[in-house]
Design brief:
Two copies of one chain form a homodimer. With 200 residues, chain A is mostly helical. Chain A is built from ten helices and no strands. In chain A, helix 1 crosses helix 4, helix 5 packs antiparallel against helix 6 and helix 6 packs parallel to helix 9. In chain A, 40% of the residues are buried. At the A-B interface, helix 1, helix 8, helix 9 and helix 10 of A face helix 1, helix 8, helix 9 and helix 10 of B. Chain B binds a DNA duplex (30 and 30 nucleotides) through helix 3.
Chain lengths: 200, 200
DNA sequence: TCTATTCTGAAGCAATCATTCCAGAACACT
DNA sequence: AGTGTTCTGGAATGATTGCTTCAGAATAGA
């Protein structure tokens, strides 16, 4: 049962990370409820009992998949926020988002939107988790803006909360645009337009 | 079976529109796959066979519900586009959207996003329908912008397709903001910020 | 009243859902 | 080699899925 620091017994025979990657991609595309355990056993190439032993129940597996997503796919946002100046931060935020959304090998939208927007009451935990992820993103942006404000890069007249929500809105909008089928070129132009209207 | 112009037989004993309204609200909140027939029979206060006779299968009922949504809830967009000047159109588009999203008695996001973002392969028709709805919205906006261009209200240097996508992105972003839990006051301020950056 | 038509509610359909159980296989340690 | 522990795959769990069927109730027109 414990998969952490076991010392004896039959060792795991599959690549835990590869299996989790497959699960993540499936959840990303079909959402929590749209993905069945049968789909998962198929894509992960594992029996249900192995999945349960390694990751817990479906909800727990979803959490693990979301964590993997945040660590291996959503780092572009963190990287953007680490840029030295506000202008570079904002530019990177949009450019990285476009690059991410139009990347190959995964669904054309961010997982926090496709994961569980509308879902049954049973799946409420999954939906709440997605909302938390989006909110955490906003908080990260806000903190970076507060830094920029301290550095004198952001006018004191600008309400940081409002500005945060505005940027968050723009980025979410980009994701929906991609889900609508916008091409990479179109998305780039849209992001450029957003930057232009932001004054960058 | 036919519910249209029947002349004899036992008449329908329930309020068709009220039943459809209940179904729409449920689909809106939980999405196509998150809503079971049991949920629907409960909310619509009808037996499954009555629903099938009146609206067809679940997918067909979903289509009817979406149509009702478009007719009774999403008219604010059409109304906004009917404003006489471009400035009024844009302002109305944002203000109406905010009023709509923060309205009481329905989920805090637009149905085209909660209806079926991530879903199983079986529910692909529902997802495609939602994408079509979003695209149709874009087309409507684009046509209005082309009108404005003819009227000389929009600079010829502005690419109408880009501008359409930009506005569409902003409006979609507002919907996500509401899903994140933004209050009415916050959403208003965000929309105002968007208008300001648009030059209005 | 009689007949034709349609709606209703309950029961039942096979399929699928997430989950669990179990016998056996595979390895680590002694 | 023997023992203990853990993993594995398949089968089975009961509940729920969307959907259908059917006998009977209800009404319209003759």
């Amino acid at each position: 049962m414990r998969t952490g620091t076991r010392k004896t017994g039959r060792p795991i025979s599959f690549d835990r990370e590869a299996a989790l990657e497959a699960a993540m991609l499936l959840f990303w595309e079909r959402g929590f409820e749209g993905t069945s355990m049968a789909d998962l056993t198929d894509a992960m190439n594992l029996s249900a009992s192995s999945i349960y032993a390694a990751f817990g129940d479906k909800q727990s597996l979803f959490s693990h998949a979301v964590n993997r997503y945040l660590e291996t796919r959503a780092q572009y946002a963190t990287e953007a926020l680490a840029e030295p100046t506000l202008e570079k931060v904002i530019r990177a935020l949009f450019n990285n988002t476009v690059a991410f959304l139009t990347g190959l090998g995964h669904p054309p939208t961010c997982m926090s939107l496709s994961g569980a927007m509308g879902c049954s009451i049973d799946a409420a935990p999954a939906r709440n988790l997605m909302t938390e992820v989006r909110k955490a993103n906003e908080v990260a942006i806000k903190n970076r803006l507060l830094e920029a404000r301290k550095a004198g890069e952001l006018s004191k007249e600008i309400n940081v909360d409002d500005y945060t929500r505005y940027i968050s809105m723009l980025l979410a909008g980009l994701s929906i645009q991609t889900a609508n089928g916008s091409t990479k070129a179109e998305l780039k132009r849209t992001a450029q337009l957003a930057l232009k209207h932001l004054g960058y």
